[in-house]
Amino acid sequence: MHLEHPDTLITILHLITLLAIPIHVFGTYCILFKTPKSMESVKLIMLNFHVWCMVLDYGITVLTVPYLLFPVLGGFPLGILKDIGVPIEVQSYGILTLVAVVSAAAIDIIENRYYIVFAQNTKWRRYRIILTIFNYSCSLAWTLPAFILLPDQNTAAPGALRILEKFGTVPEYIRKAPIFVISFDLRTITLPCMIIAGFFVVEVVVFVVVMTRGMSKLKQTARFSKSTLKMQRNFLNAIYIQVSVYITSIQLPIFWFIVSILADVHFQAINNLGFVMFSFNGVVSTVIMIWIHRPYRDFCLKIVKLNKLSNNAVHVDSGGTIHSVAPRVTSNAY
């Protein structure tokens, strides 16, 4: 199996789906039923982020399975939506939009914590909804310039093949594929991408700086006890870690995609590997969420301990003596 082949990509992404489903379900259960009252204010916001991460994961690994052809701004889908006849431009718009929506949902978590701890009695309570509407509106609109200016696909697909031919022989499975090209003009996609990414980065930095300074000021007041301050600080650190993991898992593949486009290089195996990393975003984010938030971690460890106890069976002999029975160990011969 070669990583550059479409069948390999499909197999890997479907295996990731099988791994992701139980992890996502467990994460959803933790948020819905194991979130303590002390975290109630962030429960729906965390669920919102978690759900959008799941939608993005399944959108990539099952629904679309994008096979991208960087440095060409195009590719073709291999997922279920292709089989049921959903237009490629609709699939492309959906995935690109979902990436931005998940980013907006991550910002919601940080903003919510700022509001709860620092801004409930300030003017921010009237403006925060405007920021949320702005972020999600930008998420829906940032790709519109590219899709409004789509090239004629009858000539775009041959043009994409000519670009790929510079890097060697183009496999037959690519030549016969329904290649969809978003644009040959980098500005129509990269400029809006840089603008929305800039907005999101500035928002995250501002909230982090303001909250860091706010926590320092709270230490000098009697508003919270030391234990409450410690809890708030730990919760903020947990949120920072969760959002940072998401940003890293998204940014590393995007960094390669940008390098491939700007440097005009084509390595299909790395293109596919980038999307494999991309599709792990929701799984990694969920695992990190379960581990860094103590209520979820404790619940998970409790399940593990109960499982261990259930394996330590006991046997009562005819004389009434209780004997511990060690778990049966089986070995595989090679």
TrEMBL record:
It holds the Pfam family 7TM_GPCR_Srh. The keyword Glycoprotein does not apply. Keywords: Membrane, Receptor, Transmembrane, Transmembrane helix. The chain crosses the membrane at residues 12-32, 44-70, 90-110, 130-150, 189-214, 235-263, 269-292. It comes from the Eukaryota. Signal peptide: none annotated. The keyword Transmembrane applies. This is Serpentine Receptor, class H. It comes from Caenorhabditis elegans.
